[in-house]
UniProtKB/TrEMBL annotation:
Residues 5-189 form the CobQ/CobB/MinD/ParA nucleotide binding domain. This is AAA family ATPase. It comes from Wenzhouxiangella limi. It holds the Pfam family CbiA. NCBIfam families: ParA_partition (NF041546).
Length: 216
């Protein structure tokens, strides 16, 4: 059975593509058959995979489906027999109906969120979309993934504030680390960066464990 995971948020820049490619790359390295559906016109996920060295290709397939819009859920169904996991990287929900469509067929939605008041407020919009999708997709699970977390008192307090948001929060957050940017530029997995990305590697492995456990 193929599991479908959508990565969505209301606004841009919270880390959707970073989480998508991090988790997808980890699943791929673990030997699973993984497809990333790039539903964003900006094509950041597609560019990430294209930037890879010929000698070390990104270990998952990426397909661009930004043109599908509200028909995305139908297009995604066509791939389900060929993959263990399909991860859908979406554009900001305030700009597109792709997230709404993707959630109709998803098992799980990950909402990366930067723990700051402004980002928290804007994330409210995705809550409404998730509730809407649950009217038809009752078993849709969802959790917040704190991203760009800083190890300060404010950072900790902000993560605690996420718990009041109405969705589950992963205990596996991602820190603010250059490794995530470097991986995107190099077209690499986080793991492919090696020793210099030690902390990011353990974060993304833990997040992948959490995602797999949720889907069991
Ligand atoms: N944990 C992190 N540490 C450092 N930089 C990060 C982290 N997460 C994301 N970034 C960087 O922040 C920028 C935005 O991240 P990303 O592209 O993943 O967000 P997005 O939600 O997909 O944005 P968009 O809505 O534009 O698609 C990128 O340059 C990315 O490399
Ligand atoms: Mg993106």
């Amino acid at each position: 059975m193929c599991s479908i995971v959508t990565i969505a948020n209301q606004k841009g820049g919270a880390g959707k593509t970073t989480v998508t490619m991090g988790v997808a790359g980890t699943l791929g390295l673990r030997g699973h058959k993984v497809l990333v559906v790039d539903a964003d016109l900006q094509a950041t996920a597609s560019r990430w995979a294209c930037a890879a060295d010929e000698g070390q290709p990104f270990p998952v397939a990426v397909t661009g489906l930004a043109a599908a819009g509200a028909k995305l859920h139908r297009e995604v169904r066509k791939f389900l027999n060929d993959y263990d996991y399909v991860l859908i990287d979406t554009p900001p929900a305030m700009e597109s109906s792709a997230p709404q469509s993707a959630l109709l067929v998803s098992d799980l939605v990950l909402v990366p969120v930067i723990p700051s008041p402004a980002d928290l407020w804007s994330a409210q919009g995705i809550l409404a979309i998730i509730e809407g999708a649950r009217v038809v997709n009752e078993s849709l699970r969802a959790f917040l993934v704190p991203n760009m977390v800083t190890h300060t008192v404010l950072g900790r307090e902000s993560v605690e504030a996420l718990a009041e948001f109405g969705l589950g929060v992963t205990e596996t957050s991602l820190g603010h680390r250059t490794a995530y940017r470097e991986a995107a530029i190099e077209g690499n997995t986080i793991q492919g960066l090696g020793k210099r990305a030690k902390s990011a590697i353990s974060e993304i492995e833990a997040l992948c464990d959490r995602v797999m456990a949720e889907l069991e």
